[in-house]
Design goal:
CATH class of one domain: Mainly Beta
Number of strands: 10
Helix content: 25-40%
Mean pLDDT: 91
CATH superfamily of one domain: Electron Transport, Fmn-binding Protein, Chain A
Number of helices: 7
Strand content: 25-35%
Largest sheet: 10 strands, antiparallel
Shape: globular
Low-confidence stretches: none
Length: about 250
């Protein structure tokens, strides 16, 4: 190993400059989504967004965009990423869920609040974010704010709309808990089926129900060419000094 000192010196210089290390890095994925056999990304050209087009109320504006997404046959526009973070670690987790309700207080999703990762996160940190992405319209909506649980009576209203299998599944699944195998889950479902055999009106589980994200920030994003997107942010203005209706509206740089 007569060359060992020289190799060590080269490695030391590489670490110091970073140039050799970078050149040896193998990229498993690089610039995906290119067009015309180039790495250039697809351009967004389907729309623009001006301040004059916005409602003073972000919930009303969301309803307008959501209705448009439905009219344009966007695939499952209710699909949304719910992001939460645990404290004190600050570790973030995210998952796809369905928006099931929008009311004058905020955005409602449903889940297991007894055993799930999101339940543990929210127990330590009641703030969450939602991200909607509507590819067909090149639009994105982001929501941030504190969360609150719906009452059992409120949750029962939605729970009753689910097919029986999904209602039983809510009782059976200890969401995010480790399973020894699929047969364990099937056994849990069988036990719940036997428990509620002959009962059509099932009570909503006490550990399952609605969660409302009460917006303090809502951002509407319209894709534009050259990544020069249109972005407008609504910020809750409890002092009432905002543009209208207790909300301040700002255009953001892309």
């Amino acid at each position: 190993m007569r060359n060992a000192p020289r190799i060590a010196q080269q490695l030391s210089r590489s670490i110091a400059t970073g140039t050799q290390i970078r050149s040896m890095t193998t990229k498993a994925i690089f610039a995906p989504g290119g067009i015309n056999d180039t790495p250039q990304a697809q351009q967004y050209i389907k729309g623009a967004l001006e301040r004059s087009q916005l409602s003073p109320d972000p919930l009303a504006q969301f309803k307008t965009w959501f209705d448009h997404a439905n009219a344009e046959k966007v695939h499952q526009p209710e699909t949304v990423t719910l992001s939460t973070a645990s404290l004190p670690s600050g570790k973030v987790s995210a998952r796809m869920v369905y928006l099931k309700e929008l009311d004058d207080k905020g955005f409602v999703i449903y889940s297991n609040w007894g055993t799930s990762r999101k339940a543990a996160d929210i127990a330590s940190n009641p703030h969450a974010s939602l991200t909607f992405w509507w590819h067909e319209l090149e639009r994105q909506v982001r929501v941030e704010g504190p969360c609150e649980r719906l009452t059992s009576a409120e949750s029962q209203t939605y729970y009753d709309t689910r097919i029986r299998g999904s209602r039983l599944g809510a009782w059976a699944s200890q969401q995010s808990k480790v399973l020894s195998g699929r047969e364990e889950l099937e056994g849990q479902v069988k036990a719940v089926e036997e428990r509620f055999e002959g009962t059509e009106k099932l009570p909503v589980p006490e550990f399952w129900g609605g969660l409302r994200v009460k917006p303090e920030m809502v951002e509407f994003w319209q894709g534009r060419e050259s990544r020069l997107h249109d972005r407008f942010r609504y910020l809750r203005d409890e002092g009432g000094e905002g543009d209208e209706g207790g909300w301040k509206v700002e255009r953001l740089s892309p």
